[in-house]
Amino acid sequence: MQVRNRFNRSWSSGFEVAEESNEGDVRTYRLRRRSDRAVLPTAFPSGELRIDADTPRSHRRQR
Questions:
Q1: Over 50: is that where the pLDDT of 41 sits?
Q2: Distances, alpha carbon 12 to alpha carbons 22, 24, 25, in Å
Q3: How far apart, in Å, do the first and last CA atoms of the chain sit?
Q4: What's the CA gap between 23 and 29, in Å, rounded?
Q5: Would the pTM of this model clear 0.85, i.e. be above it?
Q6: Per-residue pLDDT averaged across 28-32, rounded?
């Protein structure tokens, strides 16, 4: 997965979905960094995520 960088609005690669949840009417995702397996403390709405071209299909979650 790629996530939108909140500081400069660029896309950052190297993440996978660790957890899905709902915050009100918004679907959110907690991400795990692939390099060190750390789960980020912030939940991201789907608009701040996109599939990374180098993510194997077997690691992509179905919606």
A1: yes
A2: 23, 26, 26
A3: 14
A4: 10
A5: no
A6: 97
